[in-house]
Each structure stands twice: as C-alpha cells, then as structure tokens.
Amino acid sequence: MNLLPSEIKRETLVKSEDTTDEKFGKRPAERTIQEYMQKGVINLDKPAGPTSHEVTSWVKKILELEKAGHSGTLDPNVTGLLPIMLGEATKAVDALLTAGKEYVCLMKLHTEVPERMIKSVLAEFTGEIYQKPSLKSAVKRETRTRTIYYMELLEIEDKSVLFKVGCEAGTYIRKLCHDMGLALGTGAHMQELRRTKSGPFREDDTMITLHDLKDAYIEWKENNNEEPIRKAILPMEAGLSHLPKLVIRDSAVDAISHGAGLAAPGVLTVESGIERGDPVAVFTQKGEAVSFGLAKMKSVEILKAATGIVATTDRVLLEPGTYPKGWKAKE
C-alpha cells in the first residue's frame, strides 16, 4: 500500500505511569469557543483563482482574527487541501511545512505514447530525484534532491494522463511533469493539479470550503450555536498528529513551556520508530500540545533513559503558568 511518512503506524510505548490533576490545563475539546478558535486549524478546500495568501486573509476576516497562517503554498490555479492555522496555533505552522504531500495531477503529453512507457517513466521517477525550481519559482534556483514516495497511474485518455503522486514537501509537480515529458521524448506539461493530502490532513469530511466556514461562524454569532464552528475548525493538535508523540508528566509541563529541553524523567509514553534528529511533538496527559522539537535519542533509548535531554524545544505552544511549576531555577 502506498504511504506517506505521516501514515506509518506507530506503537505507543509506556515508560512509566502517572496521573493528571484536573485543576490544571484543559482538554482541547473542552476549550471555550474563543480559545478553540485561537488554537484551531482549518482543513480548507482551496478554490482555483486566489492565492494561498488571499485565502488565508479571507479566513481571518470571516473569523475576525488577527492572525492566521497557511502551511504550504498552492499556486492560484491549484485547488485542494490548504491547512490554515489560526491565532496562537500559527506557532505550529513550521511543523506542517515539511510534512509530505499528495497530489492528483492531470499531465498533458505533447505526443501519444503507449501505456507501458507511461508506467515505466512513473516508476523511473519514484524515489530520490533531482529538481531545479522553474524560473517562476519564488525560491533560489539551485538543483536539489526530493523524494517521490509513490506514483500511481489513474487514467489515460489520448494525450491526457491522470496520476497520483505522494512526495516530499517542496517538490515541484509542474517541473516533475516537464522532466517526465523529456524522459518520454515527447514533452509534457501540467494541465491541472489538486492537493489531496498534507501531513495529517486528508480530503475527507473534515475538509471545508470558505462558504462552509462563513455559514458556521454566522450560526455561532447569530444563534449562539457552537456545533457547526467546532466541526469546521479542528484543535491545533490535529496539525501535529503526523509527528511522533511524547506524553509528559504534569510536573514537567511548565519547564517545557518556558523553553527548557525535555528531560528523560518527565516522559511517560513515547511512540515507536523515533530516530535521533526526527521531529517530535510533546503533549500533556490531557492531549494538549506543549511543544515540538527534535529527538536527541531513539525511542528505545528514551524508554531506558533515567537522565539526559531526550528532545529539544524548538517551538513552545502552551502558555507558561498553565501547569504548576515543578522545577527550580539555578541560583
């Protein structure tokens, strides 16, 4: 089965057990609607036409928020999945930018070729490839490597080829089509593109349009009905669910909230498969996102460690003081 890295199943390994104090913190679903929106993420279905920046600006206006940020730009004519982090959740945008993506692409060949040749070139371009961004690109035009996790041929009609591609963030699908056309000896260009996956987000019943979002917000403002807006917006923790998870003790939360690295004694559970240098997310026992950073140990090492820093704290997501102080500053 074709999988993005975020779809690999991980086992939760219990290092030790603890209990959580109900007086501190709050489960994501229990946040007030104002808190919920300030720590929310939208799995938005971007229409063709506007830029990703314009769509994000419209979301801010609809929800009357000061801050919102999208994770992974889509060109104006590209449609599909555009995760948008709201309010304080914009701190977590970086965790999504590097996540794997999936697209459905309609490629136009300049000359008809046999199906076997198309299948062959899709296989040839699966794995590590070299790409140089196009002249229209906003980034520096340097050759770089990108990983194509899978390509699946969906349909062929004359010179039109519909295929699905799962790829590393930063892969240029337009350039991929051009390069495959060169390999076929016919020439080719991207005709249409839709993003169907981005990290933990999928084309499913959580995906909404701008019109859906506007209707849900009006229903809350005018009728005090929170249900539609809570369905339209997901907790920001959903935007971190593709990262391996570490759950920590209540007594360790405040230190992490102040930017400290995560020490081994604070860890309760760890997910399997973590390697040194992997991005990881840190959660409270109530399911609140505390931070994300990089693992300093493997999963098995974290399980056995009694001392030492097991993960860096690169971005803090939980406000200091949410949990009681369980640490002492050096004098």
UniProtKB/TrEMBL annotation:
Enzyme Commission designation: 5.4.99.25
GO biological processes: box H/ACA sno(s)RNA 3'-end processing; mRNA pseudouridine synthesis; rRNA pseudouridine synthesis; snRNA pseudouridine synthesis; tRNA pseudouridine synthesis
Transmembrane segments: none
Family matches, as InterPro entries: Dyskerin-like, PsdUridine_synth_cat_dom_sf, PsdUridine_synth_N, PUA, PUA-like_sf, PUA_sf, tRNA_PsdUridine_synth_B_fam, TruB_arch
Swiss-Prot/TrEMBL keywords: Isomerase, tRNA processing
Catalytic activity: uridine(55) in tRNA = pseudouridine(55) in tRNA
SUPFAM superfamilies from the UniProt entry: Pseudouridine synthase (SSF55120), PUA domain-like (SSF88697)
A Pfam family assignment: TruB_N
Boundaries of every PUA domain copy: 244-318
HAMAP family assigned to the protein according to its UniProt record, in alphabetical order: TruB_arch
Similarity-based family: Belongs to the pseudouridine synthase TruB family. Type 2 subfamily.
Name assigned to this protein: Probable tRNA pseudouridine synthase B
Gene designation per UniProt: truB
